[in-house]
Amino acid sequence: MSSYVEGFTAPVSMSARTTALVVVDMQYASGSRDHGLGALLARQGTLDSAAYRFDRIDALLIPNIGRMLAAFRANGTHVVHVTVGSERPDYSDAPRHMRPFFEGTNNHAGTREHEIVDALKPLAGEPVFNKVTMGAFASTGIGAHLTSKGIREIIVTGVSTNNCVGMTGQEAADRGFGVVLASDASGTCSDLMQDAYENTFRRLWGRVATTAEIIAEIAQTTNAG
């Protein structure tokens, strides 16, 4: 349901020249049923509690992010990858609220868990920014990078919608970027959480759009150019 607040949300349009696709935390630590978080929950006997998360990743996120990557690469539109995890095996660089997750999922640089899933691997030359915080702007140079490339809008995708994806989008909005949240290329733990965050994001932060809408709009600006 829309609210009066949405009337104050600035419109965001997308362009092949000024928009970047940002893929957030699609790693084995957080995006694979068989590694990291999934493996930890399996050892604890609670993997079923995350069935929604991993089913959505497999059925929606990987295919839809893959579609956007293919379209953006074909158009020459900018692509950025973001990872989360410690740079150090002792996790000493992790903030207090992130360290238990890093430790529990064996998520530090150099491990399989820290790698981006094979289906969405960056191509040569595509930048990868590793963060130790929820949002990418707080602990990486992504903001300066995007500005240097003339980027004015970003599309955020990945996991989790209401944590790292959303925080990255909100940080970007506070820094003057237009932000689009890809509704069917982001995921969290339940429909309730997904829907609630999408409704929150529409309240001043930015725009919510589907993969098909994003690809079509970018294609229109490519053809117009």
Cα distance, first to last residue? 36 Å
CATH class: Alpha Beta
Unreliable spans: none
Strand runs, count? 6
Indicate the radius of gyration in whole angstroms: 17 Å
Q: How much beta, percentage-wise?
A: 15-25%
Main pleated sheet: 6 strands, parallel
Number of domains: 1
User: Element order, helices and strands?
Assistant: EHHHEHEHHEHEHEH
Assigned CATH architecture: 3-Layer(aba) Sandwich
Which overall shape is indicated by the principal axes computed on the Cα atoms? globular
Counting copies of identical and different chains, the oligomeric state is: single chain
CATH topology: Rossmann fold
The CATH superfamily label reads: Isochorismatase-like
Sequence of strands across the biggest β-sheet: 3-2-1-4-5-6
Please count the helical segments. Answer: 9
